[in-house]
Write the structure tokens for this entry.
Amino acid sequence: MAFGITREELALWKATVSKGEIAYLTHYWLDPRFPGVKTVTKVGCADLGVLSAWCERNGLNPRYIHNRPPFPHFDLIGPRQKEILLEAGLLEHVDRFRLP
């Protein structure tokens, strides 16, 4: 379940993904499978080739892409989440969600 984002942020993420561009959406998230994890960043792109290449450039296995049309995405959690957000210049995500 997602918390801490607005409808406008979600709509912008969906629009960007639909255009075949990489889009980042960070939100609070609780899942009993991942105790202690409080946030996730969904990195989405409707073009699976572009999303797969993004995964490979970031040392992530494209096999873990959630191919859920019309919004395929890769879930970033843990230490790599913060590293990748900083590399992408998304300091606001790191600060807003207080990523460790």
Summary: The CA atoms of residues 1 and 72 lie 17 Å apart. The chain has four helices and four strands.
